[in-house]
Design brief:
159 residues; alpha+beta; Glutaredoxin; four-stranded mixed beta sheet; 6 strands; 48% helix; 18% strand
């Protein structure tokens, strides 16, 4: 009986934590109504003014790995700082509601790498790198060392 009571208490403790984690992954990161071309143009203008590059995260709210990267990059202070110091970020939606085909063509159709996929543009809007996010993953998250290497390697002044 004591074992059953303990199991029930453990279950009641773990269930809310699990539900919170699932809700966080369901967060709406991508705005399906935005025009991707306008997003890119605005980001390039801001990048030029701030001497940064543009980090385009292509994906959608349907993509658990897209939400994971968003949360990871927001929650890890080192990664967050690295991004904020060097990049203007664009979350470019690709979904049945809004495929943003013109913007994806401008980025040279990065979806061939899966989602999310990261595209780095310089401050003139020239694509300088496309990153398969799968190469940055580890288990059910992202490998900090790999993400830092990627972000540092394509930051302004790094090459």
């Amino acid at each position: 009986m004591k074992l059953l009571r303990t199991l029930i208490l453990v279950f009641l403790f773990i269930l809310p934590i699990s539900l919170i984690a699932q809700e966080k992954e369901k967060e709406k990161v991508y705005n399906t109504e935005l025009d991707g071309m306008e997003q890119l143009d605005d980001a390039i203008k801001m990048a030029k003014e701030s001497n940064k590059h543009v980090l385009v995260q292509v994906g959608g709210n349907w993509c658990p790995w897209c939400i994971r990267f968003h949360n990871y990059s927001k929650d890890d202070p080192d990664i967050n700082k690295l991004i904020n110091d060097n990049y203007i970020v664009v979350k470019l939606n690709m979904s049945p509601e809004n495929k943003n085909e013109e913007a994806l063509a401008r980025l040279e159709k990065p979806g061939r790498f899966g989602y999310p996929v990261f595209v780095i543009l310089d401050s003139r809007g020239k694509r300088i790198h496309t990153q398969d996010s799968g190469l940055l993953e580890q288990d059910k998250g992202y490998d900090k060392r790999k993400v830092q290497t990627f972000l540092k390697g394509w930051a302004p002044g790094s090459f």
